[in-house]
Every structure is written in C-alpha cells, then in structure tokens.
Design a protein that fits this description.
The chain is of the alpha/beta class and 387 residues long. The chain has 2 domains: 222 residues, TIM Barrel; 131 residues, Lyase, Ornithine Decarboxylase, Chain A, domain 1 (Beta Barrel), CATH 2.40.37. 29% of the residues lie in helices and 24% in strands. The chain has an 8-stranded parallel barrel with strand order 2-3-4-5-6-7-8-9, surrounded by 4 helices. Helix 6 runs parallel beside helix 7. The chain is elongated and about 80 Å long. The chain binds pyridoxal-5'-phosphate. Pyridoxal-5'-phosphate binds next to helix 9.
C-alpha cells in the first residue's frame, strides 16, 4: 500500500470487498447479467480502477451516465474492447459519431434522438447499438408508454436500413427502495415496463436485453430482474435504504474507508471556542485534534457537531463547524499530561465500523442525506489507495 505523504488523508478502496459484494449480490439472481454502474467516478471510488476490478470479477457490462464518462471509460478499458459500456445522458448536439465509433450502448428516449443516432451511424460507417428507454414512472429519461409507438417506428426504420441495432430496452424504478405505497408504485412500473417490452417484441425486436432494476430492484423486487440488473450502491457495499435493510443485514461490505492523520494536537483551556461561529466551547481543558479534510474534500458540513472519528476502537466527537479543508475533534483530557492521540495519529472518518468509526450511513443520518452522496462527494483531491 503506497501512501502519499504530501496529503495526510486517503480513501482506502478494498477490491476484495468489491468481489465479495458482487458475489453476494449475484445470489439475488444468478441467471441475469450484471452491469456495474461506475458513473461519477464510481460513486467516488475511482471509475477506471473499479471498472477494471469488476472486469476481473467477471463483469461484462458497465453503466455510466454521461457520454463523456463513457468515452473516458472506453479509453481506460481499451485492452478489453468487448466490455459493453452503457450511457444515458448526452446533449442534443452531442458527437454521436464518436460515441458509435467507441462502440457504446446508447440510451434513446424518443424518435428524434433515434434518427440522429441513425444518421451519425451512417456518417461513422458503423452500426449503432441502442437501448430503448421507457419512462414507467421516474419522470426522467425515456418515452412515456403512450409515446412508445413513434420510437419503435423510428427504430424499425433504422434497423431495416441497417444503421441501428436495438440491443436493449430499459427503464428505472423511482421507489424501488421503499415499503408501503412505494411497493405499489413499483408494481405499476413493472407492469408498464412489461407492456413496453411486449410492444417492442410485437414490432419484431426480440432477444432484447431488458433491464429495469438498480440495486433496490435487484435486492427487493425479483419480478423486476428481467435480463440484467444495474448494480450501483450495493456493489459499493452500502444499502440503498437503511430503513428498509441495513448494510450489515444485507451481508454487504463497504469497500471505501476514509482516514486522515491528525496534523495537530493541542490543549485548549476550558471556555475556548472552536471553529467558525464559536458554536462549540471547550467545557473543560481538553486536547483538540485537527483532521485535514473539509467540505472542499466533500465532507458534508451539515454533519458538523453530529459525527465522530475513531482510532483503535475509541470514538472522538467532531466539534464546531466543519471548515473548508479541516475540522476539529475533541480528544479529551488525556492521562499524565499526554494527549489521548499523538499528532500524526490516523483516525477513521468512515468505513465498515469495525474500529468504532461511523459508516457512510451514520454520516448520511448526521447530514440528513443519503449514503450515496457521502461517498460520491469525496473530492478527487483526496488520494485513493487500492488494496
Ligand atoms: C445511478 C443509476 C443506477 C444505479 O443505482 P443504485 O441505486 O446505485 O444501484 C442504475 N440505473 C440508473 C439509470 C441510474 O441512474
């Protein structure tokens, strides 16, 4: 493990935990294909490294949101030209010719886009691969079921002409992680998706890869599995919804641990304030440690005063407001005039909780957000170390 001593913090990314999670999730349905969703720098874990590791674990499909991410990933995986890369966000004037030459699987939501893909394919002299997007309730990408016919007609035309191969049909669940009314919404989405698949089949599009499920659908909605599941948050070892099932109960292992070395430890006298606004004041003489990470690194400022760090099984509360590049922790009074932790000591900000550190779920709770944003927001300036 190589450490960058110029930056006294690092995210440790455990590739074997990724393998374990993939194996665990595979049990949900061993008969479907797996797409590793590695958008947004693989939720902060490092796009190229995670994709490569997933490839080594046998994953053949990769999902990224932006076309630019897809092109970058194709470059990063250039030794594996057979890797399928699915992308679903691009602008109306995107360079689709380049996308087609890069052999991407392109999501298409309407007839106009399909025709643009077809004409780009003509220009590229290469058949484009598309996945028809259906909006079954997300209100985001995809044709509404009632507008599917014109998309299918355009697809039929382009397929006959030989410029486009329709290889998939897909949609996305809006409430796949919920209980109660959310379940009913999912059942409705499932039925609409099923109908869209049948409509495509009636137009002669057979053998399409049908995909509806992200992590939540994979974990909690077997009828939504179809032919492929898009593995996101759960692959990174986090639950899609801790109030439905905890990460631990799902047998998942968070693959990222964030740690930092205290850059300063000093004793503050009772009554001394800490950080902007003086929202925290030392109740007694106490040692304050400085953790060299802040909101510029993606540490959520909303968690100020509600979170802790840990070392050797001991918890140290974070105190005062989280700053741009650092925050303070209360280490306590120490013994015999020695601080509880020396300067340079490594503390854990988040991980699997095995050393008393918070999990991404704990941070999410403190910051009133979701575990997704906790890991995804970690800024690229924080070094990633792969083990
Ligand atoms: C982000 C995303 C996923 C992955 O979702 P998770 O909840 O992280 O599993 C899958 N499909 C689409 C279309 C997405 O935008």
């Amino acid at each position: 493990m190589s450490m960058n001593t110029d930056f006294p913090a690092r995210a440790i990314i455990d590739r074997s935990a990724l393998g374990k999670n993939l194996q665990e999730l595979r049990k949900c349905n061993p008969n479907i294909q797996v797409m590793a969703v590695v958008k947004a720098n693989a939720y902060g874990h490092g796009g190229a490294q995670i994709a490569r590791a997933a490839l080594e674990f046998g994953v053949k499909w990769f999902g990224v949101a932006q076309l630019a991410e897809a092109l970058q990933l194709r470059q990063a995986l250039k030794d594996f030209p057979a890797a399928r890369i699915f992308t679903w966000i691009f602008s109306p004037d995107a360079d689709l010719e380049t996308a087609i030459k890069a052999n991407l699987d392109i999501a298409v939501s309407n007839a106009e886009t399909l025709l643009r893909v077809a004409s780009a394919a003509r220009a590229a002299g290469k058949k484009a691969r598309v996945h028809l997007a259906v909006d079954t309730g997300m209100g985001r990408e995809g044709a509404l079921p009632k507008n599917l016919a014109p998309l299918l007609s355009a697809a039929e035309m382009a397929a006959d002409e030989g410029t486009v191969e329709v290889s998939g049909i897909w949609s996305h669940l809006a409430r796949g992680d919920e209980n109660g009314v959310g379940e009913q919404a999912t059942v409705k989405q499932l039925a609409d998706f099923q109908m869209a698949c049948e409509a495509a089949e009636r137009r002669g599009f057979t053998g399409l890869v049908r995909h509806l499920s992200a992590s939540s659908g994979l974990l909690w909605h077997p009828p939504a599995h179809f032919d492929l599941a898009r593995y996101g948050i759960a692959m990174y070892g986090l639950t899609p919804n801790p109030s439905r099932a905890t990460t631990a109960s799902l047998q998942l292992t968070p693959i990222m641990r964030l740690e930092a070395d205290l850059i300063s430890v000093k004793k503050l006298p009772a009554g001394h304030p800490v950080s902007y606004g003086g929202t925290w004041v030392a109740p007694h003489d106490t040692y304050i440690g400085i953790v060299p990470l802040g909101y510029a690194d993606g540490i959520d400022r909303h968690a100020s005063g509600k979170i802790w760090v840990a070392a050797n099984g001991e918890r140290y509360p974070q105190v005062g407001r989280i700053c741009m590049d650092q925050f303070m922790v209360d280490l306590g009074c120490g013994k015999d005039g020695n601080p509880p932790l020396p300067v340079g000591a490594t503390v854990r900000l988040w991980g699997d909780g095995s050393q008393g550190e918070p999990t991404a779920d704990d941070w999410a709770k403190a910051a009133e957000t979701i575990n997704y944003t906790i890991v995804t927001d970690l800024n690229p300036r924080v070094p990633r170390v792969y083990i």
